[in-house]
Amino acid sequence: MAAWNGSIYSGLFALHVFFFISGLLVTNSFLNKPDLVSWLVSRALRILPALFVCLVLIVFVLGSALTTLPVNQYLAHHDTWNYFLGNLLLLRTRFILPGVFAGKPVNGPLWSLFLEVRLYLLAAVLLWIFRGRRREWLTTALGAIAIVGLVAPRWILVFGETDNNMACSGLFLLGALCALWSDKVLISNIWLVVLFLAANNYARTPAFGPVFFFFTCYFVLCFGFSRFLSAIHLPGDYSYGLYIYGWPVQQVMAKYFPNWSPPLNAASSLVIATAVAALSWHLVEKRCLAQKKRMSGAPAAPWKKLVPIAAGCALAILIGAGLYQLKPAEGSTSVDEQLPLQPLGTIQAFGPTEVVAGKPFNVQPDGSSAMWVRLSSSANRKSSIVFQNRKLKTVAAGHVLTAKVPAELFVNPGEVDIYVVDENYTPSTRTPSTRLTVLNPR
User: Fold this and answer.
1) Best label site of 16, 40, 66, 270, fewest CB within 10 Å?
2) Do the strands 369-375 and 347-351 form a parallel or antiparallel pair, or are they unpaired?
3) What is the number of other CB atoms lying within 10 angstroms of the CB of residue 20?
4) Who contacts 17 (Cβ-Cβ below 8 Å, separation ≥6)?
5) Whole-number Å distance between alpha carbons of 269 and 273
6) How far apart are CA 325 and CA 4, in angstroms?
7) What confidence category does residue 79 fall into, taking pLDDT thresholds of 50, 70 and 90?
8) What is the dihedral of CA 390, 396, 400, 406, to 10 degrees?
9) 3-state DSSP call for residue 156?
10) DSSP 8-state secondary structure symbol assigned to residue 151
11) Which of 45, 28, 219 is nearest to 127 (CA)?
C-alpha cells in the first residue's frame, strides 16, 4: 500500500479503520442506551481485564523466560514494574522490558489504548452534557473540538502532537458523527469508487491524506453493510485479543526464526495469535462482559450521579498529565531513553565531529552553536536531532537536519551520543547512534 501512495502503509490503514469503528460503535452504544454508568462500565470491562491478563503473561511469564538478565534482577528492575503499571493504568505507554527482544518494543500497539481511553472519556463527557438535546448541538461541539485539535493540538490532548494521533482522533470523532447522523448517511458503492479514484489521483501528493481519510471512513461503512460481512458468523470476538497479542507473538517468532521471510512470519504469527486471542475471549473477555448483563438489571444507585463528574475529573487528570509530558524545555526537550531502536535510515555524516568543551562552534548570528546531520533517508518535520539525550529544535530539509545546541550540553569533555528520532510514528522511531567528541580545552 505504501508503494502506491507513498505515505500510508497497510498497518496504518488498519489502525485508522479501528479508530473510526470505535467512534462509531461506542457512540451508537450510548445513543441506544443513554446510561452513562452502564456505558463506562462496558468500556472498562472490554479493555481492562484482558489487558491485565496480557500484561501479566508478557511481563512475568514471557519476559522472565526471554530476558538476558538474571530472573530475580529482571523482576526487581524498575523498568519491569514501570512497564507493567504504566501500561495497566493507561497513563503512559511503555515499550521496553529490560533484556527482552534486544531493546525492541515488546508490544507496540498498546500506545493506542492510551489514546483510546482519552477519547472514551471525552466522548463520555460530551454525550452526557448533550444528552436529550438536539443532535446539532453535539455536532457543533465535535466540530469545534476537531478544529481546535487540528490548529492547536496541545490544547486538545486526544489529538496529541503527531500526525498519527491527530488522524486517529479525527477518525474517532468522524465515526461518532456517523453514528449521530446514521439516518442521513448514504451507502453507495458508486461513491466509494469515486472516493477511491480521487485518492488514487492524489497519491503521493499532500492532498492524498485528507482524501484517503474520507475514503477510509466510507469504505468501513460500505463494507460493514455488505452482504458478505453479514454472512460471516464467528464463534467469538477475537479482534481485541489479536490486537494485544499479535505483536508479541511476531516478536517471539522473529527471535527464534530470524531467517523467515516477513510473509511467513506474519502468516505463522496470525495462526498462533488467533489461538491466543480465542483463549483470551472465551476465558477472560466473554466472562467479564457477562457481568455487564447481570449489573444492567440492578436498580439505580445514588452514586450514579457522581459518574459524570468522575469521568470529567479523569479526563482533566489525563489532560494535565499530557500537558506535563508535552511541556517543552528551553532549547531542547528530554527524550525517553526507552525509544525503540528501529530502522530510520542511518546517519551518513554530521558536523562538527569534534568540539572543544565550553567553546561555541558553528556560531550563529545570535551567538548560539549549531550542528548538522545528513541521513540516508529523507527526514520530515517530526524528525529531530538528539544530542546527549536531549531533543533539539530541528529544521529538516530533505536528507539534512540542522539544530542549535544549547551551551550546557557540551560543557564537559567526553563522548556524546547523537541520533535522530522521528515522532511521525507511534511509537517513535530512531536511527542508530553515532558519537561526537568533546575535547578538553587547551
Assistant:
1) 270
2) antiparallel
3) 26
4) 216, 219, 220
5) 6
6) 36
7) confident
8) -30
9) coil
10) H
11) 28
Beta partners for residue 387, in sequence order? 390, 418
Each residue's pLDDT tens digit, 233-263: 778 889 899 999 999 999 999 999 989 998 8
Q: Which residue has the cell 495469535?
A: 273
| CA distance linking residue 11 with residue 109, whole number of Å | 11
The CA distance from 96 to 280, in Å, is 23
Report CA Rg, the chain: 24
Task: List domains and CATH numbers for the chain.
Answer: 2-326 (no CATH), 332-439 (2.60.40.10)
Between the alpha carbon of residue 275 and those of residues 24, 113, 245, 323, the distances in Å are 28, 22, 10, 40
| Nearby residues of 255 by Cβ (< 8 Å), 6 or more positions away | 66, 101
Residue with cell 496529541: 160
Give CA–CA dist 440/442, Å, rounded: 6
398: left (phi over 0), alpha (psi -120 to 50) or beta: left
Return the SS3 of 164.
helix
CB atoms within 10 A of CB 44: 14
In contact, 160 and 166? CB cutoff 8 Å: yes
What Cα–Cα distance (Å) separates residue 138 from each residue in 65, 112, 127, 130, 142?
50, 25, 8, 6, 6
Question: Within 284-390, where are the H helices?
Answer: 286-296, 307-326
Contact 383, 424 (CB under 8 A): yes
pLDDT digits (tens, 9 = 90+) for 305-355: 555 555 555 555 555 444 434 344 444 454 544 544 444 678 888 999 899
Residues 177, 175: Cα–Cα separation, whole Å: 5
Out of 33-37, 213-217, 269-273, 316-320, the most confident range is 269-273
Sign of CA dihedral 149, 153, 158, 162: positive
CA dihedral 202→204→208→213, nearest 10 degrees, is: 130
Q: Concatenate the DSSP letters of all residues of 4-31 into one string.
A: HHSS--HHHHHHHHHHHHHHHHHHHHHH
With H, G, I as helix, E, B as strand and everything else as coil, classify residue 418. strand
298 grid coordinates: 440492578
User: Dihedral angle at the C-alpha atoms of 281, 263, 223, 200, nearest 10 degrees?
Assistant: 150
Q: Is residue 52 exposed (0-12), middle (13-18) or buried (19+ Cβ within 10 Å)? A: middle
